[in-house]
Amino acid sequence: MKLDQNYDIETLAVRAGYTQTAEQENSEAIFPTSSFRYHSAQQAADRFSGAEEGNVYSRFTNPTVRAFEERLALMEGGEACVGTASGMSAILSTFMALCESGDHIISSQSIFGTTKVLFNKYLAKFGLEVTFVSQTDVAEWQAAIQPNTKAFFLESPSNPLTEVADIKALSVLSKSANAYLIVDNCFCTPVLQRPLALGADIIIHSATKFLDGQGRAIGGAVVGSNEVVGEEIRGFMRTAGPTMSTFNAWIFLKGLETLSVRMEAHCIRAQALAEWLDTHPAVETVFYPGLTNHPQYELANVQQTGAGGLLSFRVKGGQENAWKVIDATEMLSITANLGDAKTSITHPATTTHCRVEPEARLKAGITDNLVRVSVGLESVRDIKADLARGLDSLAF
Ligand SMILES: *Cc1c(COP(=O)(O)O)cnc(C)c1O
Questions:
Q1: DSSP class of 205
Q2: Among 256, 296, 266, 288, which Cα is nearest to 76's?
Q3: pLDDT category of residue 361 using cuts at 50, 70 and 90
C-alpha cells in the first residue's frame, strides 16, 4: 500500500512501504533471493543501465529491504532511506560517501564508544580530522568550525548520561558552516524525535535497538534527502556492500509495526523508575530527561515527545556498590545491549566505556558508581523490586 506523509506515524509504521504481491498476503512477505530474472535481454540491459527501475541484485535492490527503507523514511519524514548491515556500517557508509581526505568533522564527545573508535582509528587513516565538543554547549560547536568542516555528528539523548543536544540550534550553525548535521536517532526513534523536522540533514539508526525492539537482529539505516542519501550513500552501499540482510529487514519491518506502542510503554516505565530511584536513599543522582531536575528537561520537553527508555544513576559509594546493585538482580539482563523488551542493566565504566582513558571517562561523567538501565517492557513493580534488592541492602 502506498501511503504518504498525510498519515500519522502510527499508521505509517503499520502499513507504509509495502506492496502486496499476487498472493494477496496480509503480512509482509520475505524475498530471500540474491538475484532477479528479466523477461528479456533488453530488460536486463535496461535494469543494469538504470533506464528501467526495478530489482537487479540483492546487494542493492531487495523488496523486503526496500519495504523497510520506505517505511522508515516516511516515519522519519525523509525522502530516502538506505538499510545497512549494522548501525556502525550506516555511520561508516555515511562518512565514506560524503567526506574526503582533509575534511573536518565536529562530533559531540558523548557518542557511542565504537563510533569514536571508528573516527579516531579508522577514518583518521584516510585523513578525516575530528574535533570532539560538548553535547550541550552550542558555543563549543561554533568555536570548533573550520573552513573544511564537512559534518556535525551527535546522538541525543546521549548514552549513558542522557544529555540532550539542541538539534535546532546546531542545525542553524551547521547550515552557516555549510556542513551536514548528522543525528544518530537510535535512542528516540522517529516516534519520540524527528531530527529532520528540527533541521538535521541525515539520520542514522542502529535498527538493532528499538526498531527491532526484541534483541533479535543486527542492522542499521541512513535517512535523508534523495540527493544525499538516495544517491550518494546508496551509491556507496551498493558498491561497498554493507547490505542489510533480507531476513533482518523483515524482522525490522515487523518491529516498526509495534514501535509506537512500545516506545510509549518504555517511556512510562522509565519515568516511573526514574522518579522512584530519585527518592531512594542509596542513590546519589538519577539521569533521565523526564525528571524536572534534569539539566535539559525543558529542551527535551519541546524536542522530544517522550523522555525515552534509557536512564542511568549513581549509586552512593564506589564501584563496589554499583556492582552490588547489578549482581543482586535476579530478573534483569546484565548486558550492554539496549532497546529490548527485556530490561538490561550495565556498568558503563567497565563495559561500554572501558576503552576510554580513565581521566577522559571521569571528565565525561562516567564515574565508577554509575549504573545504566535500558528499561524494557516488564512490569514496573517487578523491575523496581529487582533493583531494590541491591539498593536496599546498602546502608544509607
Ligand atoms: C548500538 C549503537 C550503534 C551501533 O549499532 P550496531 O547495530 O551495533 O552496529 C550506533 N549508535 C548508537 C547510539 C548505538 O547505541
A1: E
A2: 256
A3: confident
The pick from 107, 206, 340 for probing ligand 1's pocket by mutation, whose C-beta has the most ligand atoms within 8 angstroms, reads: 206
Model confidence at 275, in pLDDT bands (50, 70, 90)? very high
For 30, the 3-state DSSP assignment is coil
Q: Is the CB of 326 under 6 A from ligand 1?
A: no
The atom of ligand 1 lying closest to the CA of 155 is 13
Helix 246-257 with 259-278: angle, nearest 10 deg: 70
Closest among 203, 187, 334, 357 to 266, alpha carbons compared: 187
Q: Give Dmax (Cα) for the chain.
A: 78
CA 18 to chain centre: 23
Residues 6+ apart with CB under 8 A from 380: 268, 269, 272, 273
State the closest ligand 1 atom to the C-alpha of 159, by its place in the atom list counted from 1.
Answer: 13
**Residue the block writes with cell 559534518:** 151
Instruction: Determine if ligand 1 sits within 6 Å of the CB of residue 174.
Output: no
- The dihedrals phi and psi of 167, each to the nearest 5 degrees, come to -65, -40
- 3-state DSSP call for residue 139? helix
Q: Under a CB-based contact definition with an 8 Å cutoff, are residues 249 and 64 in contact?
A: yes
- From the list 272, 305, 264, 265, the residue with the least C-alpha distance to 288 is 272
**Does the beta carbon of 28 sit less than 6 angstroms from any atom of ligand 1?**
no
Strand runs (DSSP E) across the chain, as ranges? 80-84, 104-108, 129-133, 149-155, 180-184, 202-206, 220-224, 283-287, 310-315, 333-334, 344-346, 370-374
Q: How far apart are CA 256 and CA 251, in angstroms?
A: 9
The CATH code for residues 9-257 is: 3.40.640.10
* Single-letter amino acid, residue 376: G
Q: Which three cell numbers stand for residue 312?
A: 542511568
In the DSSP assignment, the letter for residue 340 is: S
List the grid coordinates of 362.
Answer: 571521569
Residue 312's φ and ψ, nearest 5 degrees, are -140, 160
Report the top-level CATH class of 260-391.
Answer: alpha beta
Task: Centre a 10 Å sphere on the Cβ of residue 23 and count the other Cβ atoms it contains.
Answer: 6
Please indicate whether residue 70, judged by its CB atom, sits closer than 6 Å to ligand 1.
Answer: no
pLDDT above 90: residue 346: yes
pLDDT band (50, 70, 90) for residue 379:
very high
Domain boundaries, the chain: 9-257, 260-391
